[in-house]
Design goal:
Structural class: alpha/beta
Mean pLDDT: 92
CATH class: Alpha Beta
Distance between the termini: 28 Å
Shape: globular
CATH architecture: Alpha-Beta Barrel
Order of helices and strands: HEEHEHHEHEHEHEHHEEEHEH
Low-confidence stretches: 1-29
Strand order of the largest sheet: 2-3-4-5-6-7-8-11
Number of domains: 1
Number of helices: 11
CATH topology: TIM Barrel
Radius of gyration: 18 Å
Number of strands: 11
CATH superfamily: Divalent-metal-dependent TIM barrel enzymes
Oligomer: single chain
Length: 297
């Protein structure tokens, strides 16, 4: 078992974790850390905010982050592609879109004083090799440290050589389907991915992990060296799709945040608003952020 200092040095030396970016520059009232814990947002939280002119999905996300006082994000891939594309249209768009487009997206975040920590790109079985490779090119152009991926074990085997060629981490994101061994949901499925490649890590969603019937606190203590960052949400134990307001479910949000605060591992906590609400996404993300700050006080 490594000490916190040894773990941090090894991760940085291997290029698997970069130093925390200065995400506060130029952005009044935002901070990427709370009591030593890096706090960001999965921009899927803003999925219901209408797009801007000409279908622009980036401007509203940037505005929402600034309004919430958050400066660090995991960027949800569909928000940077045109809306309402069929599968074939999306493939064509991705192949034909110049990489300068993604650099432009990065610049918009940079100009707003925001950072893209990770890029959520989730290949399915019908993705071509070109599409797999393009995901890494896009992530690099966006300035992301890594790709996060809601994929399957069989597709992960296809992703592996691209991760190793690009020398970029892919952090596997799990859900709650424990009945399919090809899905990322169980501790064993995450272990299988990590065993495939030194570039495969874990993006643990403590809500889904709870809904799948597992103990997020114990898993984090056991596998912290393989975890890049967490998605923070609340769900009910052994009840998939049971998205609930923070503090009303079974996910150990307070305990997890306190664990990160105490141990000082380089593991960020990324807020994800996903429960039903009549309020706006910005209002709810602010509520989630206040909950997280209270838990870390």
């Amino acid at each position: 078992m490594y000490t916190r200092r040894e773990f941090g040095k090894l991760a940085l030396a291997a290029g698997l974790v970069r130093p925390k970016p200065d995400t506060t520059a130029g952005t009044a009232g935002t901070d990427a850390t709370v009591n030593g814990v890096r706090i960001g947002v999965q921009t899927y939280s803003f999925r219901d905010i209408p797009r801007g002119a000409a279908g622009d999905g980036i401007g509203p996300v940037i505005a929402a982050m600034r309004s919430c006082g958050l400066s660090d994000c995991e960027l949800y891939g569909p928000q940077i592609v045109p809306p309402s594309l069929t599968r074939d249209q999306l493939r064509t768009w991705r192949v034909k879109t110049p990489i300068s487009y993604f650099r432009g997206v990065r610049q918009r975040f940079t100009d707003a004083g925001l950072a893209i920590y990770a890029y959520n790109y989730s290949p399915k079985a019908d993705y071509t090799d070109d599409e797999l490779d393009l995901g890494f090119q896009e992530a690099k152009a966006l300035g992301a440290t890594m790709i996060t991926s809601s994929t399957t074990l069989d597709v992960a085997k296809r992703i592996r050589p691209f991760a190793e060629t690009h020398r970029m981490v892919v952090a596997m994101h799990g859900h709650s389907n424990v009945s399919d061994p090809n899905e990322f949901a169980t501790p064993q499925s995450f272990a299988a991915a990590v065993a495939m490649s030194r570039y495969f890590k874990i993006n643990l969603d403590i809500g889904h992990f709870t809904a799948a019937g597992f103990d997020a606190l114990s898993f984090i203590r056991e596998r912290y060296a393989d975890i890049t960052h967490l998605h923070i949400k609340d769900m009910l134990s052994r009840q998939p799709e049971s998205y609930v307001r923070w503090g009303t479910g079974d996910a150990p949000i307070r305990g997890v945040l306190q664990l990160l605060k105490r141990e000082r591992w380089p593991i960020g906590a990324y807020l994800e608003y996903e429960y039903p609400s009549a309020r706006t996404p910005v209002e709810e993300v602010k509520t989630c952020l206040a909950f997280a700050k209270g838990a870390l006080a």
